[in-house]
Amino acid sequence: EVQLLESGGGLVQPGGSLRLSCAASGFTFSNYAMTWVRQAPGKGLGWVSAISGSDGSTYYADSVKGRFTISRDNSKNTLSLQMNSLKAEDTAVYYCAKLTAAAGRSSRIDYWGQGTLVTVSS
Amino acid sequence: QSVLTQPPSASGTPGQRVTISCSGSNSNIAANNVNWYQQLLGTAPKLLIYGNNQRPSGVPDRFSGSKSGTSASLAISGLQSEDAADYYCAAWDDSLNGAVFGGGTQLTVL
Lengths: 122, 110
Fold this sequence. Notes:
By secondary structure, chain A is mostly beta strands. Chain A has no helices and eleven strands. The N and C termini of chain B lie far apart (28 Å).
């Protein structure tokens, strides 16, 4: 059974940093691209970033480029999102999700975590 | 403002057929596959349609998808109360080099 368990969310001040982690199990982690999708309170889904399973290529939404860094440790089946220079508009539930192929250039997600809430506020 | 445009709301009575549109551009919908997600209240999204018109195992055949040019549609026939949810279209955008979602459509079953 595929499981994705996010951690690391919480309250952070504007300009601060936070690191989200996602522990994956139930599939061969290195064979699949992974992605982060967020959802602000009462709002729709927003794609954040993706990383390929094979060559580690990374992709970012313009709104987070230069501030967020996605990474993966295939030896530990772990996906991470380092978030720096956080803004109030980054407040959202962040979902870790598995793409259906090794390439990160896809919007086809077959498994989602339960999400972790990030609140940016003073 | 989402890159993919969906109506914010849709509604129907049990048994009816409802369609939800998703409008994009040559760099996303026209160039790449469209996927649809269903999000029930308080839960993570679920893949409903992939590759424009394919259903994952377990998704009832009441749900169907189509694509033409820069637009895509999700159709739900034989509407049931449990279909009340938010629905999102998504596609890869070659110009942005990232995935894009529609703003979501809240479906109400009257």
